[in-house]
């Protein structure tokens, strides 16, 4: 079963690589709304695809009566997507500064009063020992800068070596989630940077579907608890197929 999944994934990647630049850009233009919707939907169930489409296409919404913060977070995901694509395409190199900059855009204007009063800021590493996710992961705040620097170095070493594309992206996401370097917005930042690195390596980006959040967190938890990346990598292969299979022919 695992071999069949890998074969299907490898075949899809071959099709992706063979696309013309123009065709790939058109597909990525359609991808953005799906990515933004699902990445935010994991955090906010009230979001609708129609609302996301309005923000992506016209930077405005009509007849919306929900939480305004959801709209801000959604727009932030679009802005941060543009940044990650441009920066990593120009220089496919991860850095502590880029991770902070990406987080700053993802969470711009969304930190709640309690966090702000505690001195926490978008784009800055956490000051307190916050944890998150079903496994309640997160290292002490004092250890975050070093851990993020080591993570960036590890990813860059693999990027320079080439190969193992999905493994690199999966590890970046899983380890960044495990470090939990920010007071809020860690999941959205991890999903953004994972996709930015995939695109920088010439690979198809991934929509992690909101309805698959249980399997998503289960794969991350196996990595957090056992150090085994394989279940999360298999999950990402499957989500890639669900994102693109049938669209590249």
TrEMBL record:
GO molecular function terms noted in the UniProt entry: ATP binding
Positions annotated to bind ATP: 184-191
Keywords: ATP-binding, Nucleotide-binding
Domain Fido stretches: 94-238
Taxonomy of the source species: Bacteria, Bacillati, Actinomycetota, Coriobacteriia, Coriobacteriales
Name of the featured protein: Fic family protein
InterPro entries, per the entry: Fido, Fido-like_dom_sf, Fido_containing
Catalytic residue positions: 180
């Amino acid at each position: 079963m695992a071999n069949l999944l890998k074969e299907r994934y490898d075949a899809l990647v071959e099709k992706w690589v063979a696309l013309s630049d123009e065709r790939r850009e058109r597909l990525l233009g359609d991808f953005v709304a799906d990515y933004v919707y699902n990445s935010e939907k994991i955090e906010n169930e009230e979001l609708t695809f129609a609302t996301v489409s309005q923000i992506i296409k016209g930077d405005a919404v009509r007849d919306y009566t929900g939480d305004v913060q959801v709209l801000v977070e959604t727009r932030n995901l679009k802005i941060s997507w543009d940044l990650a694509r441009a920066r990593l395409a120009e220089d496919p190199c991860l850095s502590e500064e880029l991770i902070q900059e990406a987080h700053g855009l993802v969470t711009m204007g969304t930190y709640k009063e309690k966090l702000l009063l505690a001195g926490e800021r978008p784009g800055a590493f956490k000051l307190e020992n916050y944890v998150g996710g079903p496994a309640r992961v997160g290292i002490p705040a004092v250890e975050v800068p070093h851990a993020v620097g080591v993570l960036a170095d590890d990813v860059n070493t693999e990027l320079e070596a080439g190969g193992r594309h999905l493994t690199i992206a999966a590890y970046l996401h899983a380890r960044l989630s495990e470090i939990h370097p920010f007071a809020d917005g860690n999941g959205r930042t991890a999903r953004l940077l994972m996709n930015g690195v995939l695109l920088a390596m010439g690979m198809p980006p991934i929509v992690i579907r909101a309805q698959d959040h249980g399997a998503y967190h289960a794969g991350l938890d196996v990595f957090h608890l056992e150090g085994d990346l394989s279940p999360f990598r298999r999950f990402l292969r499957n989500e890639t197929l669900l994102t693109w299979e049938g669209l590249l022919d």
